[in-house]
Amino acid sequence: MAPRTTASDYKRHQKIVAATDLVGVPAGTRGRIMYVAGMTWIRYRVEFVNGVEIGNVDGAVIMPVAEWEQIEADAARAARKVENDRIAAELRAKVVAPGSISH
């Protein structure tokens, strides 16, 4: 998953998700912005639900919860489609073509 680029998109106390693996925080871990700092490089102090708190988090490695949930839903939908297509191909292969049955 490509991290998004950001300026100061996030506000204090906003709930976010780690978009990539961070030290002690796997991608997909939810957290909350505790502090916003910087002028030319906006960075965040984030408290994650697994108890890890990281300062100087760049906005490119986090994303809003709703955006993460949409990405997960899209991936699950794509995986279901691949599986359904595989099953359909197997079933089509098992169908006997008319006229090919000999007695």
SSE map:
Blueprint: E1 15-18, E2 30-37, E3 43-48, E4 53-58, E5 62-64, H1 65-94
Antiparallel strand pairs: 1-2, 1-5, 2-3, 3-4
Global structural class: alpha+beta
How do the helices and strands follow one another from N- to C-terminus? EEEEEH
Mean pLDDT: 89
Helix content: 25-40%
Radius of gyration: 23 Å
Count the DSSP helices: 1
What number of domains? 1
Q: How many strands?
A: 5
Strand order of the largest sheet: 4-3-2-1-5
Query: What portion of the residues fall into strands of 2 or more residues?
Result: 25-35%
Shape: rod-shaped
Q: How would you sum up the major sheet?
A: 5 strands, antiparallel
Unreliable stretches, pLDDT < 50, 5 or more residues? none
Q: What is the CA–CA distance across the termini?
A: 56 Å
Report on the architecture of this protein.
- By secondary structure, the chain is α+β, with helices and mostly antiparallel strands.
- Helix content is 29%, strand content 26%.
- The chain has one domain.
- The protein is built from one helix and five strands, in the order βββββα.
- A five-stranded antiparallel beta sheet has the order 4-3-2-1-5.
- The longest helix is centred in the C-terminal third of the chain and has 30 residues.
- The protein starts with 14 loop residues before the first strand and ends in a 9-residue tail after the last helix.
- The relative contact order is 0.17.
- The model has no long low-confidence stretch (mean pLDDT 89).
